Amino acid sequence: MRIHRLVLEAIGPFPGRHEIDFDALATSGLFLLEGPTGAGKSTVIDAVVFALYGKVAGAEASDDRLHSDFAGPEAEPSVELTFSTAAGIFRIWRSPAYLRPKKRGGGFTQQNARARLWRLVAVGDEGEPVSAHVQEVGTELSRIVVLDRAQFTQTVVLPQGQFASFLRARPEDRRTVLQDVFGTEVYEQLQRTLAEMARDTRAAVERARAEVLASARSFAEAALHVTAARQETGAGHEEEEPRHAVPAEDETTRRVLDAAAGMDHRALCRITAEKRSSARRLVDVSAALRTQTRVAEERARTRLHAEEQLARLVERRRELLAEQEGLAARDGAVRSAAARLGLAGRAAAVAPVLDLFDRARRSLVEADEACERLDLGPDADLASLDDVDDLRAAHDAVTAELGSLSALVTLEDGLAARGTGLSDARAQHEADTLAYARAQDRLDQRPAARELLVETLSAFRDAGATHAEAQAAATNARARLTAATEAADRSRDLAAAEAEMADRAVAAVRAADAEHTARRRWVAGMAGALARELVPDAACPVCGSSEHPAPAELSPEHATEDEVEAATAVREAADEVLVRARTRVAGLREQLAGLHHLAGGLDVAAARSGLEDAERAAADAKAAIYRSAELEQELADHDAETARLTAELGKVQSALAVETERLEQLAARLREDQARCALACGPAGSVAERARALERRATAALALLDAILERRSATAARDDALAQLARALSETGLPDAETARRGALPADERTRLEQSVRRHESAVERVSAELAEPAVSSLTGNERPDVEAAAAAHAAAMADLADAAAAAREAELTATRVTDAAHRLETDLAAHTRDVEQAAPLLRTAALTNATDMTDMTLATYVLVRRFEDVVAAANDRLAEMSDGRYSLERIDEREGGQRSRRAGLGLQVQDHVTETPRDPRTLSGGETFYVSLCLALGLADVVRAEAGGVELGTLFVDEGFGSLDPATLDAVMAELGRLREGGRAVGIVSHVTELKDRIPERIEVRRTPDGASTLRVRC
Fold first, then answer.
1. What is the full DSSP assignment across 308-338?
2. Per the similarity annotation, which family is this (predicted)?
3. Which of residues 614, 644, 669 is at a domain's end?
């Protein structure tokens, strides 16, 4: 994974918008994130982690710190990150949840977190949207990045300072760290779970054993009941002692309990089979006895039923004869009721016509009374018109006159309102005329105001003409200030570089002197060195003689060739460093000269003062341009308003003329309508009063006409109903209407009489039929049934049957109890055997994982040991280079003091290959501790990354307190970090050490501003 670009806005101490181009920073493979403590270096890393995972880097850190307190409450905090993985190039934008001002009203409201994700073809293009939902974006990123947040923060930021304590920690503390890093707490949980399962399993086995023993006791008790029941059945039924007494524990009980205690399945099966067979034999004997007593009971029951049937027939015959006598006594009353029902039937046929006649007679009386009650009031003259046609003609004449007045009534009602409206319209017309005159006065004053605007606009046009020159001057002044600031920074860099160059020059001179001295000593001692190589009788390599009478002695100051070569290498290295220092000084001097030229020879203060003057002049010119534009707009608005007012007043003048003519027309029409209404009212006070009098007369005429017609109709209906009544009386044979009225019966009374007659007739028929039945007619009346004797015989048979059935039920219950107890015993024994067999693998596994057997190491410790070995191996790959092969790390099983335990295996020692002796990590020096700890940290990062699917990080941050390092150790660390950037990786160092600025030119500078906020600057 490689990080390409980061943009953050209103995040942490950064209120503004800042962009970091990591591709530009990573051109040399190494860059620095530096700044004072607390300035915001960690916020940059938090922004990267938040963009990828929606949470900041720290496990316990709160996302509330993301929204900058220095930005305004309306500023939206956001982070945008462009990165690439094996899945492609992506851009993620996130905004955390924060409180923003409400759009309506005061106060704040919660703005939820948001996120958007794009897939890019290349870094910098717009890309294709992937998702705009927070949850979907998180799901996609987990697939793209592969690493989870914990693994990412363990690999992207290496907290080396923590691993110095990890190097020196006790195995118990080291175990905690590894467990957190690799997430192996699942194995601890597995150990605890298996231990709990083992305890539960052992308890379950013990419970199963207890169930077997309890079932064995229950079976023994049931077996004793079988023995007692067999003895009782053999003794007969006459004994008076308790029939089901349980004897004391016998040999069977002892056998069952002994076999159960030893879990002897075979013996228990034999005993249960024996007792089941005995119980079945006991059931068979009891069933035979119950069958014999049931046959005797059935014979006694048959005799009892016969006697009871005879007694019922004798009683029934007696009851039927008595009922027949009672029915004969009621024959006369029933015949009289039947005659009364006949008369009521004929009266019911006449009843509808009789009711019709009565209603018609009442209607005629009511019509006569209505005519007498009719009050015509002022229109009493209508009563003299007896003819219906005359009444209709009078009504029609009144209605016609009333119709001609309806429109005038409406017209008369609106006359008053029309007069009031006309007065109001005339008053409004006068007010509009006055307003028109005033508006015309204001229009006449506008030309003078326009002349004043034109004069002001001419003055501001002249002031704004210099804006282009002022803007160019401000741009030049800004460039001079930037160059002056850069020149001040480069002056300090140049001073430091010149001092370093002087130091390198002294070091180079010293290295050359040392090489010269070594060569001189080597030349001076060359004769002695050659003499030491002479061999007797062998030719001298210088003179060729085989005799060596006075060989030279080796000088104590003699230098070997290795020493000379070493001095030469030191001198060459010093020269190379000096060349680089001189090159850097020359480059800084060239940059400084160019910056001084761009600054125009001004220092920072003078350049800043010139910029302020130029910006002020540009601002004044820009303000004049804005004011000129505003005045031009005001002039245009003034002319437009004048034109609008002129057109508007013309329209008002025309409208006033039209309104004057309309008011004159309204007044003329009002006078005409008043004259029409005065003519139409006649002798009445008004048209409305005249219309009400006509309406009252029309109503009276109509009421009188309706009353006369209703009386004629009632008379005709009465005559017709009288004729129908005469026909109905003739058809039914009734002499008159009064006889029909007296013969009528209410419906419920007729129903009661009909039911009484039918019940009597049905009873007579039923009694005759039942007396004729063969079973009753065959009786003579002399029969004498003996039910009591038959019942006593049946009761005795029932008692014998109950005793036999009880004995059979007891035998079946005892057999069932034995069978159930035997089955339960066998089931519990099989369950115990199954539990023991199933528990064995679990108990063995729990003993293995928790080291309760002969194993020395628990499962969790074993897993951590294997991971720790991988970490140590990865660390040794770097440690061999950093220590020149002197040191390597070894995992040991012992605890401190050489003791072993179940959690052994996480001990650590350093092997010194110079002395070939092991060393405690706490005995290492500060520099040795540093690079050994760094190797451990990087080794752990490699293992975590490999376990995450071999994810390769193209961008890596190393967070470490470099200020405590000496120069030699710092060189070693930088060399190792240089190895990290091999293969295209970009390595970022997070530090505030000043010396690292000279070593790493590419950096992100984080600085505080006077108001307490922070800003950052990228130098590439």
1. HHHHHHHHHHHHHHHHHHHHHHTHHHHHHHH
2. Belongs to the SMC family. SbcC subfamily.
3. 614
Q: How far apart are CA 987 and CA 958, in angstroms?
A: 7
Instruction: Tell me if residue 558 falls in helix, strand or coil.
Output: coil
HEC string of 644-713 equals HHHHHHHHHHHHHHHHHHHHHHHHHHHHHHHHHHHHHCCCCCCHHHHHHHHHHHHHHHHHHHHHHHHHHH
- Domain check: are 946 and 960 in the same one? no
Neighbours of 653 (CB within 10 A): 12
pLDDT at 897: 44
Report the distance separating Cα 513 and Cα 43, nearest Å: 51
Residues 59 and 170 in one domain: no
| CATH code: domain of residue 80 | 3.40.50.300
CA distance 178 to 346: 118
Strands 30-34 and 78-85 turn out to be unpaired
Tens digit of each residue's pLDDT (9 = 90 or more) over 377-431 = 777 777 777 677 777 887 888 788 777 777 877 877 888 888 888 888 888 888 8
H runs (alpha helix) in 886-966: 926-947
Which tokens is 741 given?
A: 């009225």
Q: Is residue 376 part of a domain?
A: no
Examine the domain organization and report whether 24 and 79 are in the same domain. Answer: yes
Closest CA to 819 of 252, 284, 280, 276: 276
CA count, 13 A, side-chain hemisphere, 406? 8
Which of 67, 55, 50, 92 is CA-nearest to residue 13?
67
Is 216 within the bounds of a domain?
no
Tokens of 729: 């009386």
Phi/psi of residue 847, nearest 5 degrees:
-65, -35
Residues 224, 246: contact at Cβ < 8 Å?
yes
Domain range for 945 is 160-180+856-950
Residues 1003 and 897 in one domain: no
Q: Which has the higher per-residue pLDDT, 805 or 183?
A: 805
Residue 128: count of CB within 10 angstroms of its CB: 10
102 lies in some domain: yes
Asked, for residue 85, whether it belongs to a domain, the answer is yes
- Lowest mean pLDDT, pick from 41-50, 227-236, 526-535, 750-759: 227-236
Number of domains in the chain: 3
User: CA-to-CA distance for 623 and 631, rounded, in angstroms?
Assistant: 12
Distance of CA 607 to the CA centre of its chain: 59
CA distances from 958 to 38, 152, 215, 603 (A): 17, 13, 71, 38
The answer on pLDDT for 531 being more than 70 is no
Looking at beta carbons, which pairs linking 766-771 to residues 24 or more positions away fall under 8 Å? 767/320, 767/323, 767/324, 767/327, 768/324, 770/316, 770/320, 771/317, 771/320, 771/321, 771/324
Q: Which of 875, 973, 960 is nearest to 931 (CA)?
A: 973
Note whether 910 and 944 are same-domain residues: yes
Residues 71, 176, single domain; the answer is no
Identify the domain boundary among 930, 950, 970: 950
Buried b (16+ CB within 10 A) or exposed e, 494-530: bebbbebbeebeebbeebbebbeebeebbeebebebe
Q: For the chain, how many residues are written?
A: 1020
List 85's β-bridge partners, or say none.
88
Order of strands, edge to edge, in the sheet holding 78-85?
Answer: 14-21, 2-11, 78-85, 88-95, 114-120, 128-131
User: Residue 229 in contact with residue 244, Cβ under 8 Å?
Assistant: yes
Q: Are residues 945 and 959 in the same domain?
A: no
Mean pLDDT of 235-262: 56
The answer to pTM > 0.70 is: no
CA 360/CA 616 separation, integer angstroms: 118
Q: What is the pLDDT of residues 487-516, one digit of tens each?
A: 888 888 889 988 998 998 889 888 888 887
Quote the Cα angle for 367-368-372, to 5°: 115
Statement to judge: residues 878 and 959 lie in one domain: no
Q: What are the backbone angles phi and psi of residue 350, rounded to the nearest 5°? A: -85, -20
